[in-house]
Amino acid sequence: MPLIRYQINDFGTPLAGSCSCGRELDRMDAAIGRLHDCFYGPDGTRHSGNVLGIHLTVGEDDVAVGQTQFIQKSLTHFLVRVTDTPEPTRETFNYLERRMKEIIGSGITVDFEVVARIPEEPSGKTRFVICEIPPPGRD
After folding, report:
1. Domain total of the chain
2. DSSP character for 15?
3. Which CATH number characterizes residue 45's domain?
């Protein structure tokens, strides 16, 4: 399906070759993320929110991690919302903070908020990563 004049803020991987239907338009593999679902490291490097999803949604050593939402407040400050089911423990918070620092950088601070549920967007979807800062280097 051609995406003409749509700014949907998805990004994916270009595909080589033409479509089996015969169209000669550029093709794109399945979207791998949304532009607004990115976050930035302390050095300004942009990362896909998928990085956090891949590495943090399953705890290690029997650490229970419920539904989470990562909110970037500044280049070095993150707020992590964690649902109260399963009830998060000190080990849960330590695990998340340690892994985030390994992935993003040790120069970050992480605050936690325990919630009954992660708020939904007007679309009804729940965003996993919310970046509240403008892209570094752009004014």
Report:
1. 1
2. E
3. 3.30.300.30
What pLDDT score does 31 carry? 56
Bridging pattern class, strands 68-74 and 129-131: parallel
Average pLDDT, integer, range 115-133: 90
**What DSSP line would sit under 63-91, residue for residue?**
-----EEEEEEETTEEEEEEESSSPP-HH
Which residue in 95, 93, 64, 61 sits closest to 79, CA to CA?
93
* Cα separation values, 70 from 49, 53, 124, 130, Å: 9, 10, 18, 6
Count of all residues that appear for the chain in the document:
139
Q: Please count the CA atoms within 13 angstroms of the CA of 87 that sit on its side-chain side.
A: 1
Strands 109-115 and 77-83: parallel
127 occurs within a structural domain: yes
Domain membership flag for residue 136: no
Exposure of 103 in the CB half-sphere (CA atoms within 13 A): 21
* Mean pLDDT of the region 25-43: 74
